[in-house]
Amino acid sequence: MSKTQRTREICGLAPIVPVLVVDDAAQARPLAEALVAGGLPALEVTLRTPAALDAIRAMAQVPGGVVGAGTLVTPEDVRAAKEAGAQFGVSPGATDALIAACEAEGLPLLPGAATASEAMRLLEKGYDMLKFFPAEASGGSPALKAIGAPLPQITFCPTGGVSPANARDYLSLSNVICAGGSWVAPKQMVVNGDWAGIETLAREASKLMD
Asked: Is-contact 88 107, C-beta < 8 A?
């Protein structure tokens, strides 16, 4: 039984999952509204700032959005993310403790893997929808294509160094359902409150599979 069915459904909502670093929780809701309006409903808020959990709380109120917590590393991260309203979790790698915490909390997990061995270990645990991270540093789309040949039952969301210049290379692979990208919410646009500009970037990204 695949433990990643719900994660796969979320990843299938749009070709790009925005990877968001939110410094000011007051910007969270308008940021989420702009991304959802632009056609990117699945949002990953990384737990890299003090404002992250409050940002998740705010984004969880946005109609049409599905907010998740990224950079899950410890069981404490998982519990805090779930309490804040996260509907899924994303981790750079995977540990037994992290997986157990997500399963205990009922939080769908997109666990990270960079090698065939890591992917096989996760498959053994019932996880067949994985994050390929760090994508570009791990060999990019050629590496992911090569991993896919002997492991066709695993699909991936490549993240890390994905950009408008290479996103289609990843999205064209048979084992890729979506990609994670931060370019749809540039820091300066967020600081300036340029929500219309972010919505435009999101709309362009939402058409990358067309």
From this structure: yes
Q: Where are the beta strands (DSSP E) in 71-202?
A: 88-90, 109-110, 112-113, 129-132, 155-158, 179-181
Residue 10 corresponds to which tokens in the numbers above?
Answer: 């979320």
Question: Can 131 be counted among the known catalytic residues?
Answer: yes
Q: pTM (2 decimals)? A: 0.97
Q: Which residues pair with 18 in a beta bridge?
A: 181
> Cα separation of 113 and 138, whole Å?
10
Pick the catalytic residue: 3, 44, 82, 199?
44
57-93 pLDDT per residue, tens? 999 999 999 999 999 999 999 999 999 999 999 999 9
**pLDDT (tens digit, 9 = 90+) per residue, 132-189?**
999 999 999 999 999 999 999 999 999 999 999 999 999 999 999 999 999 999 999 9
CA angle 192, 194, 199 (to 5 degrees): 150
Options 3, 33, 82, 131, the catalytic residue: 131
Rounded distance, CA 131 to CA 92, Å? 8
Q: What are phi and psi of 12, to 5 degrees?
A: -85, 0
> What is the four-CA torsion angle of 50, 56, 57, 62, rounded to 10 degrees?
140
Any catalytic annotation for residue 44?
yes
